Structure prediction request, 77 residues.
Amino acid sequence: MKAYRTDLEEIDLEVLWFQVCPFKSKRPLLMTGIYRPPNAKADLDHRLAENIERACSPNMETILLGDMNLDPSKKSF
Prediction:
């Protein structure tokens, strides 16, 4: 079973959220595909973080996949 979670979408964020229930599992997973452009501004980063926090649930394992374009050498977000 899989369900596209449009309730977690936001304008200007390139994220897709899916709720899946693996075969023979009683516990669903929440999966997302994220694209963050390399030139993203801080306000977009904060909105993305808020979107992820809002989507995470203590009752559901969450898996984040995608291209975040984060530079670990920078001390910013």
Notes: The first helix runs from residue 42 to 55.
